[in-house]
Amino acid sequence: MLTHRSSVIDDVVDLDRYPIHLVGSSVRSDLIAETRSQMDRYGCFRIPDFIRPEAIASMLEEAGTLHPHTAWSQMDHNPYASPDDPDFPPGHPRRFFQHRESGFINSDLLASDSPLNRVYDADVMTHFVWECLGVDRPIYRWADPLGCNPYGVMEPGHSFPWHFDGNEFTVSILVQRAQSGGVFEYVPDIRGPGQENYGRVQAVLEGSREGIRELDLQPGDLQLFKGRFSMHRVTPIVGPTTRYIALPTYVHDPYRMNRPHHSINYYGRATDLHHQRANLLVDGLVD
To answer: How many domains does the chain fold into?
Structure first.
């Protein structure tokens, strides 16, 4: 059993309650077993109060300081963030557009010693997330320089309609919840590689509640989520409080990034690297 203290993240992660650095400990093993069980069943798991309150306060201060640099976007988009395709009939999910208003504080704006950067850059955290996911292939920190670990920002009246993520797995840390609304809703594993399952997707888009799960996150909670295969949304923000959520992201492929159109739609810009890697084949799914 590894017994050394992970000083890099000790003041960020509550290692007393969640000793993720103690590989082989029964507490850690039990936590991983429960996470895998819930991920297999629901595609999602929450670990409450994973991040220490002092670190959440620092993240909130950082997000507030960088708030003026938020990449805002408001647009109508389908669940795939792809252009309208007249080859599909009206009302098809590929042609079902909903209005989104939200923003991101892009990853390249964060200070190197940011609490979010420190937990994201820690190998012990990557190893823990990998074990929780229970996958055979290794995972890596995402190569995307804008979207690897941004803060998601939603102000009063904003909403983030049904969509799929460009990455296979997402880890989130709620920093500040809205006064009301801002509830995370998702449909576990509604699609898979090579299987878009347009029928079920369309039913949800048209108002069906079948299979929808809700997760009302609290500040400091760590959430693991299969965002590429589970369609999800955030309900409208109500009240005067801005919702901030940290989004450290892990992937199986250490090379690929968001496609340029996806990066522009969500992060306000695309880098040269996004364009260089735009033609990289991934999993055959639309986006």
So the answer is: 1
Cα(97)–Cα(39) distance, rounded to whole angstroms? 29
Structural domain for 249, as ranges:
26-276
Say if CB 45 and CB 38 are below 8 A apart.
yes
Q: How many CA atoms lie within 13 A of 287 on its CB side?
A: 29
**Per-residue confidence (pLDDT) for residue 95, from 0 to 100:** 97
Residue 111 placed within a domain: yes
Domain CATH number, residue 269: 2.60.120.620
| Spatial distance between the Cα atoms of 249 and 261, rounded to a whole number of angstroms | 19
Please say whether the beta carbons of 190 and 230 come within 8 A.
yes
Confidence of residue 281 (pLDDT cuts 50, 70, 90): low
Element (H, E) at 215: strand 213-215
- The model carries a pTM of 0.88
Q: What is the pLDDT of residue 1?
A: 46
List the one residue out of 30, 19, 38, 8 whose CA is nearest residue 223.
38
Q: How confident is the model at residue 286 (pLDDT cuts 50, 70, 90)?
A: low
